[in-house]
Amino acid sequence: MTVTEYKYLYRINSPEDLRNLSVDELQTYCGELRQFIIEQLSHNPGHLGSSLGVVELTAAIHYIFNTPDDKLIWDVGHQAYAHKIITGRRDQFCTNRKLGGLSGFPRIEESAYDAFGTGHSSTSISAALGIATASALKSEKRDVIAVIGDGALTGGLAFEGLNNAGASNANILVILNDNDMSIDPNVGAMKEYLLSISTSKKYNIFKQRTWDNLERMPRLRRILQKAGNALKQGLLQQSNLFESLHFRYFGPVDGHDINALTRVLSDLKEIPGPKLLHVLTVKGKGYKPAEDNQSIWHAPGMFIPETGERIVKDQHGIPPRYQDVFGETILELARKNDKIVGITPAMPTGCSLNIMMEQMPERCFDVGIAEGHAVTFSAGLAAMGLIPFCNIYSSFMQRAYDNAIHDVAIQKLNVVMCLDRAGLVGEDGATHHGAFDIAYFRPIPNMVISSPMNESELRNLMYTASLGKGPFVIRYPRGRGVMEDWHTPMEEIKIGTSRILREGHDIAVLSFGHVGNFVVNALDEAEQKYGISATHVDVRFAKPLDEAMLHSIGRNFGKIITVEDGVIKGGMGSAVLEFMNYHGYDCHVKMLGIPDSFIEHGTPDQLHALCGYDTHGILETIKKESGIKEEK
What we know:
Blueprint: H1 15-18, H2 23-43, H3 49-52, H4 55-64, E1 71-74, H5 81-89, H6 124-137, E2 144-149, H7 156-166, E3 172-178, H8 189-198, H9 201-214, H10 218-227, H11 229-236, H12 241-244, E4 248-254, H13 258-268, E5 275-280, H14 288-292, E6 303-304, E7 309-310, H15 322-336, E8 340-344, H16 348-351, H17 354-359, E9 364-366, H18 371-383, E10 387-393, H19 394-397, H20 401-409, E11 416-420, H21 437-441, E12 448-450, H22 455-465, E13 472-475, E14 499-502, E15 507-512, H23 516-530, E16 534-538, E17 541-543, H24 547-556, E18 559-567, H25 572-582, E19 588-594, H26 604-611, H27 615-625
Parallel strand pairs: 1-2, 2-3, 3-5, 4-5, 8-9, 8-10, 10-11, 11-13, 12-13, 15-16, 15-18, 18-19
Antiparallel strand pairs: 6-7, 12-17, 14-16
Helix pairs in contact: 2-4, 4-13, 6-7, 15-22, 18-20, 23-27
């Protein structure tokens, strides 16, 4: 559609404008909103399927509730594009996920309509309860709505929030957006339970007939709604999980029927206390390619909207993604070692464990969005002699920190924690950057912390970890490596040893992980243009450090630069600085990495440059530390 073909889209600049539409007009607007999202994301990629699935639900919430006075919290938040467009950010939406533009997730500082910043799952109910409780304490009357997906409901924090909220009198509405998907299809008992209550013919036919008959008696209907769980249990001789937690359960409701949604939300607005509305939606709704292949179209990249053809660059001659090297290598290792198993918290496609899952489904475990459980489950497997490779995005591993300390490290169990998306990940921004893992794992005794500079080193580290070396962390970035011919023979690496890649005498540069490739390029240019002779060490292990190498560096160099794709405070560079200080070496250590601030969204190249450790930034630091000044 063009601007002139949209009847309502460009007339709606706020929820207040939305409320001037009739329900029939609202349905038309939802179609236009869906088409706008498809058009925008076809050339500016983002989270497509999840946002298409909640178009009607989003419009209905803003239509019935008085946002922003009423507070709306989106769990995770990658489904909040329609919300952003409705709440005055339509004309800025072309900047979504771009440097300096809109965030791909709700952000408090971005809009008054974003009641709570999100990015990680299962937080919405707890946050909503806090907001509702604070409102009550301040004698402020408002509705608080939390929208949570059935995937996010597998996270333990969601149940903590439900348990606490159900025991309160808080005026909170939890909307369960049930589409049987997160990024990949949902797994576990909760999935089966939701399926059972959404397909119970006896329950739903009786309830539908009851409410339809009461449609002509609205006062009686409201009385019965407010009567709560006792009436339901008496009539139906059953309750459900949510009612057992003292939530008043309503649903399931068709999440794409705008008439039903506005009607039920209007009714629920009159009912105080904790309530849960079960809404059934289709991820990717309204765009057939996204409906047919929901995992791929969660975030499909660029595509042609008219045909659904994805625009994929020619992969010939391009190095593989690190995640795919992990996926192929763990399968290769598992074929040789029957003790190896794979674990992921709801990210088999995102981390490429799906490669092993297809070949050895009995040895791979998707535990749902439950990072803490994933780590402790892995610890249990290791306690029985297996070697679990637990693959979790670096940012999400923060949610399992206690489990890594208490259940893995203290017991010295052979759990291999593969941290995908380590470092600056790009367009997903501050909530998703893998900035802190080096710093948060370094203080933990018994923990090995490693990072490969290329695909071959990743394979070697995985092989080494498979030999049963105790708690073992392997961190690697999002994106591609540097080797076309990466399927190299695997060799054991002695833990705590580094690689000297280049020898020189002016300055020493110590790198950790993939960013070592930036150093290689910077040193080539430093030597060719400025005659700088440098030693380059691929540290490989941030813990334990290669002490023999560091003693040699400390004795022979007065100036050292460290480079890492993680926070400077507490990172690999800090470890080097601590070593030099402890052993009395008189050398200056300049640390490059992520500064003491949250880095916003942009392309990885932009963010590396912003933080000063792309090739150009490293070169400029080398020149400065070497006393080179450019002639003006």
